[in-house]
Description:
Layout: E1 5-11, E2 18-21, E3 29-35, E4 42-45, E5 49-50, E6 54-55, H1 59-73, E7 81-89, E8 92-102, E9 109-113, H2 114-121, H3 128-134, H4 138-150, E10 155-156, E11 162-166, E12 172-174, H5 191-195, E13 206-207, H6 214-218, H7 236-241, H8 250-276
Parallel strand pairs: 1-7, 10-13
Antiparallel strand pairs: 2-3, 3-4, 4-8, 5-6, 7-8, 9-11, 11-12
Amino acid sequence: MYTRIIYEKQDLRKLSWERISSAGWICGSFLKAVDFQNKPFRYYKLSSYDPAKGIVGHESVNELIADRLLDILGIPHVHYQLVNASIKLENKILDTWLCVSEDFRKKEESKIAFDTFYELEKKGGETPLSFCIRNGWEDQVYEMLLVDFLILNRDRHGANLEVVKNNQTKEFYLAPLFDHGLSLLFSCHSDLEMRNYSVLEDKPVQCFLGSCSTVKNLDLIPKDKYPRVNPLQKKHKADIFVGLEQVMPPCYMEKVWEMIWKRWEIYEGFYDQREKK
């Protein structure tokens, strides 16, 4: 795609930011911008912004960490770039790290939020999960449930999944996974909070296709459908965090790795137990 981390300050003051409510998950709001000047279109996203404190979150860094983790596991996803940028927001010039992604659609394709598509096309009392199974998307959904467990993704609402339509063949498919900012240690803003964070705590999450528990969502995966992803290994720690030393404190990266690795060990335990039954 392109270099994953751009350290040289980029002048992005011309971008116009749209405010997206954080729906109560974290204090502040999320701001997004789109560059339609060139193709593929480029989508920009800031971490959590507080009008009094400025940009206080690190959701943009989480997108890159999740991107690299999904590369290792071999799960299709939208790629993100982390950019050091100067932006203009509410008549103030701010320096920050933001993330950028490119439009993954081909020219003959259009997209729609999954929850909207589900409401239009569901049959009777069909649940979102059974709807996906009927459409042949179950393997992708089970990979999503695994990923969201590993990174404790709190925000898999119905618009954080998309359905893509090929306007020539009239076929539909699930878009690659995207939007993993509200995960990992997104709510921790100090070294003390990071060090004290309980990485295995089953915090409540939004999941349009499952429950409010990422652990219970693993139980939705049938025995013969557990994702056979590339195994995570301890050597992958270096691949996930390379270059982030200039962006995040060491305690953040250590705690994030602790979360991913311990949750991976739990997933392997689930998988092994089901294989033996």
